[in-house]
């Protein structure tokens, strides 16, 4: 078990704790939830950095890290919809974001046996960052700052737009690679 893989599995293991803190619905616990979410989001960066820095890249890490990221986003988005923190039209953003995450995961799973890669793009890394910032703002107790709700919704929709753009890019790339692979066979 490498340090990066340990961080990834720890991220997955702590997601139920984070969801529980959200549903206990107390301003004090919301700050704990925000702190835990921030730590878990940071491990998304840290595990990849350490894998490269310590030369501890592994097939297990390459498989489980993106899964852990998607579990974190999906679990917290569903919890925030369930608690009413993501409400109204912002739920449409949640549906679009989760749909894209499942679509891209399915594409990667479909392409893997064909030895066709679908590497993460720089825009997708920015998408993830904006998603995590928006989710963090939904977690923070309300009325922290003036206009927090409007700002959070605006960042959420920016994340949604980036999500749709990257999803379209991945579908286009996958289609081109499948076509090239089919012609090459």
What do these coordinates show?
The protein is mainly alpha-helical. It has one domain: Up-down Bundle (Four Helix Bundle (Hemerythrin (Met), subunit A)). The chain is 81% helix and 0% strand. It is globular and about 60 Å long. The mean pLDDT is 91.
Topology of helices and strands:
Elements lengths: L2 H21 L3 H27 L5 H25 L6 H22 L10 H18 L8 H37 L1
Brief rundown of the structure:
With 185 residues, this protein is an all-alpha fold. It is built from 6 helices and no strands. 81% of the residues lie in helices and 0% in strands.
Name the average pLDDT.
91
- Overall morphology: globular
Bin the helical content.
over 70%
* CATH C-level name: Mainly Alpha
Radius of gyration: 18 Å
Number of helices: 6
The span between the termini is 39 Å
| CATH-defined fold name | Four Helix Bundle (Hemerythrin (Met), subunit A)
Low-confidence stretches: none
Number of domains: 1
Comma- or semicolon-separated keywords:
185 residues, mainly alpha, Four Helix Bundle (Hemerythrin (Met), subunit A)
């Amino acid at each position: 078990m490498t340090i990066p893989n340990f961080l990834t599995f720890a991220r997955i293991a702590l997601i139920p704790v984070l969801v529980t803190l959200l549903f206990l619905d107390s301003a004090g616990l919301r700050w704990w939830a925000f702190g835990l979410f921030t730590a878990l989001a940071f491990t998304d960066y840290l595990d990849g950095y350490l894998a490269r820095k310590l030369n501890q890249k592994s097939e297990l890490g390459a498989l489980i890290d993106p899964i852990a990221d998607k579990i974190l986003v999906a679990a917290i988005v569903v919890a925030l919809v369930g608690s009413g923190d993501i409400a109204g039209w912002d739920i449409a953003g949640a549906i679009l974001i989760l749909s894209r995450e499942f679509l891209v995961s399915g594409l990667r799973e479909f392409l893997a046996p064909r030895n066709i890669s679908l590497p993460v793009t720089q825009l997708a890394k920015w998408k993830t960052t904006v998603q995590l910032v928006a989710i963090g703002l939904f977690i923070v107790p309300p009325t922290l700052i003036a206009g927090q709700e409007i700002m959070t919704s605006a960042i959420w929709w920016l994340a949604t737009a980036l999500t749709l753009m990257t999803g379209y890019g991945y579908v286009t790339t996958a289609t081109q690679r499948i076509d090239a692979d089919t012609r090459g066979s």
